[in-house]
Amino acid sequence: MSNSSLAKWKWSGISDHYNIRDHAIDKITIHHMAGNLSLSGCCNAVQSRGGSTNYCIDSNGNIGVMIDERYRAWTSSNRENDMRAVTIEVANAPGAGEPNWKVTDAALNACIKLCADICRRNGIKRINYTGDTSGNLTMHRWFFATGCPGPYLGSKFPYIASEVNKLLTTAPAAPAPAPAVKPTVTNPGTGGGTSQIYRVRKSWADSKSQIGAFKSLDNAKKACKAGYKVFDANGNAVYPAAAVAAAKTYRVKVVHDDLNIRSGAGVSNKVVGSIKDHGVYTIVADKVVDGQTWGKLKSGAGWICLAAGFTKRV
């Protein structure tokens, strides 16, 4: 399952606030940000509240990805809905606020196009807005005591459904060919290419720290000095390998209400369970992945994130 090609930006932060879906995507839930936030500002805001979203749209109509579409984001305060829905956070217009929480035409139009694209890629033939949870276009306020998506955007749901359905009855325009990417190469003679580019940076988010980009992973590794990492085109650190520390056994108290247990260290690994009891657990090894420390449970159940907000050492 891929993300929408309409999204030209992806959040570089780290979140454990999502799950593997247990239902096919057959709904869309549209939220508002309750502010004119940037794409990164939206992601950071929902992350700070212990949530997440699949997509976000700023007031200029730019679309970003926070949590890949193949995962259930924690957006609508309802597990059943979010397991089935792709969730979208839409920025409010500059200066807009209570009581109407208006959104710009650019953001609204981008939302309509994104909804149509989600439908096409997931086999949703038609948007059916019913005004309640029985339809496949849903609102946050139907699941939780909130005003989201605000009076203005909420009033546009019938229009959104109508416009999306119009787009679904017409063939999508063929996308323009992507321009060739010419990498910046610091080692003369390594050549160019677009099949895969490996970038050497301190972190994926810190593009200014980049000291080279290479077609050859071996050459990227050679250029990678202390304090730097090699990232692939998707922003994944591929070198150096994160080392598992032969940690002394220690204990942590879980402070998160629903902490995922994963099959390995890092959010790319499968969720194999969860901890909800706020108990104390023994860690027998730890490992840093993408700047975040993970701990291996003594029970052998898997790995948990040890970051602040999830656990504290006792």
Automatic annotation (TrEMBL):
Q: Name one GO biological process term.
A: peptidoglycan catabolic process
Instruction: Enumerate the InterPro entries for this protein.
Output: Amidase/PGRP_sf, Amidase_domain
Q: Which residues form the N-acetylmuramoyl-L-alanine amidase domain?
A: 15-150
Q: Which Pfam families match?
A: Amidase_2
**SUPFAM superfamilies from the entry?**
N-acetylmuramoyl-L-alanine amidase-like
Q: Which GO terms describe its molecular function?
A: N-acetylmuramoyl-L-alanine amidase activity
Protein's UniProt name: N-acetylmuramoyl-L-alanine amidase
Its source organism is: Ruminococcus albus
